[in-house]
Each structure stands twice: as C-alpha cells, then as structure tokens.
Amino acid sequence: MTGAAAAPGAPGAAGAAGLPPLREVIARYGLAARKGLGQHFLLDLNLTARIARIAGDLRGADVLEVGPGPGGLTRALLAAGARRVVAVEKDPRCLPALAEIAEAFPGRLEVVAGDALEIDAAARLTPPVRVVANLPYNVGTELLAGWLSPPCWPPFWQSLTLMFQKEVAERIVALPGTRAWGRLGILAQWRCTARIALTLPAAAFTPPPKVASAVVHLEALPAPRFPADPATLARVTAAAFGQRRKMLRASLRGLAPDIEGLLAGLGIAPTARAETLGLDAFCAIARTLDARHPVA
Ligand code: SAM
C-alpha cells in the first residue's frame, strides 16, 4: 500500500511508506549503474537519513535534489519532512522508481526529467530552498560553481548539502596557506560558510567509486564577507591560481600595467604567491582594479 506514508520526520520513515528496499527497486527496473552518468548509489537508508539531517530542518522548506537515481536520498528528504522535493534526473530509466516514491508521498515530489545543467530549477521552487544532492562527479563542480555565481546575492537557496569526491570537498573548505586553497575555496567561502559534515569511504556506494567522498554543507551568508565585484574577483583568482607557482607580480601582470605598485599599495608583497593570500586580499585587489578602471 503506497499511500500509507510515514509521518514526516518520523524515525525510520525513509524505509517506511510502503516502499520496497532499494536493491529490489534497482533489480526490478534494471538500474545497472552507468559510469558516464556518475552513478554511484547510496543504498543504506540510515546514511541517506543522516545526509538529510545535515541539511538542517527541512520542514517548511522546498528541496532541490539533483540526480535522485533510484531515490534513496529522495525518500530520506521526504521522510525528514521537506515540504516539497524537486528532483532533476537525467537517466530516464530511474523515472518509474521515482514515480513510486511520488505516489507514496502525495503532492510532495516533482520529478523533472533532464539535465540539471540546462534546467532552471529555481523557477520551480518556493523559498526557503535547500539544495541536497549526492552529485554526479562529472558535473558536480560545474553545478556548484553555478549555484555560487547567481545573478544576485542572496541566491535562491539557503543552503547546499552536497556529496563530492573528498579531494573536491577539501578544496571547498580549504584555508589560505594550504595546497588545497584556490578558486573553488574562494568562490565558496566569499559568500558562504562551508564545512565538511561527513566523510564516506568508497565502499559506502554501489558500485564503489575509486576515491573517498565527503558531504559539504554550505550556508549562504546574507552578504559577501568583503566587498568585490564577482566578475572581477573571478578574473583575479583565475589569473592568480592559473599560475599558482608564480609570484603575483608575474601571474597578475595581465590585469594592470602597474601590478607591482597596485599590490605594494595594498601592503601585499609582489613576490608573494597566490596560495598565501586570504580572501580579504583577493577582494582588495579586485576592488582596486575596479576603482582604477570603473565599468561605464
Ligand atoms: N541520489 C542517488 C543516490 O544517492 O543513490 C544517485 C546519486 S549518483 C552519484 C548521481 C545521479 O545523478 C545519477 O542518478 C545520475 O543518473 C544523475 N545525473 C548524472 N548527470 C546528471 C545531470 N547532468 N543532470 C541530472 N542528473 C544527472
């Protein structure tokens, strides 16, 4: 009986709602994992419930999920009380399994068939919105960069709870002065808090990927930590980390004729390397460039 959904937020509700075990769903619908779609499924419903909890209080929130696959995390999000889940899935083979979940949680799951890189999911969601996903690794960073670079800030989402390869997760939360510090960490931490909330071994997934994974939880700040124009900041960090072993006076040379003077004026050694600079310094460089060449 699929209509007997467990009460939102009830313990173990992800496994209830009259839904069959995920292994049975995968066998029934022939969902052999496809590498090209980054398919590494989470079949442990305790684990998916844990990820849903990391996302915060979902009651009264719309959730955007990218890549629901057979729906393990989707069930957990609904069981945790999400007002509505909009799930974007590229693999049409998963749609019947997701339709079963939609039936078990009437009116609360909208499945959108297609490519998350092309679909404007924001238009289908009502604030507050939380994004929760076990992302396909091949498009994970691109999706994150898109969510972190909206046309205006604050963005359409309140938080992002996302599974990445552990190495990518470490770059998102990296600190200045470390090898992992770079464009992704700056993009993420400029306007968000970011932390690794859970690390998982490859064996937690079916089939296991080659490397360990981690869940990163980001909360949007109401405003950037330091003022800067997003496009100029992106130009500065691209130049600085594009040649991260070079001194700043060389890597940033293309941005201003007198880059040494500009850096010295900000108290930044022109011989320093990008890795050693904090967010405040990158934002200061971006602001100074814009002040010298204001956009008409
Ligand atoms: N959420 C499921 C889980 O945790 O078991 C599956 C996660 S699996 C790592 C990634 C999912 O993203 C797969 O279902 C895959 O088909 C889907 N996917 C891959 N590329 C996609 C894209 N561009 N847009 C939407 N979904 C995509």
Describe this structure in words.
- The chain has helices at residues 22-28, 45-54, 72-79, 95-104, 137-148, 166-172, 183-191, 230-242, 248-251, 259-265, 279-292; strands spanning 62-66, 84-89, 109-113, 129-134, 159-165, 192-200, 213-220.
- With 296 residues, it is of the alpha/beta class.
- The protein folds into two domains: 16-220, Rossmann fold (3-Layer(aba) Sandwich), CATH 3.40.50; 230-292, Helicase, Ruva Protein, domain 3 (Orthogonal Bundle).
- A seven-stranded mixed sheet has the order 3-2-1-4-5-7-6, sandwiched between helices.
- Helix 2 packs across helix 3 and helix 8 packs across helix 11 (279-292).
- The longest helix is centred in the last third of the chain and has 14 residues, at 279-292.
- The chain is elongated, with a radius of gyration of 21 Å.
- S-adenosylmethionine binds at residues 37-42, 66-69, 72-73, 88-91, 94, 115-117, 134, 136, 139.
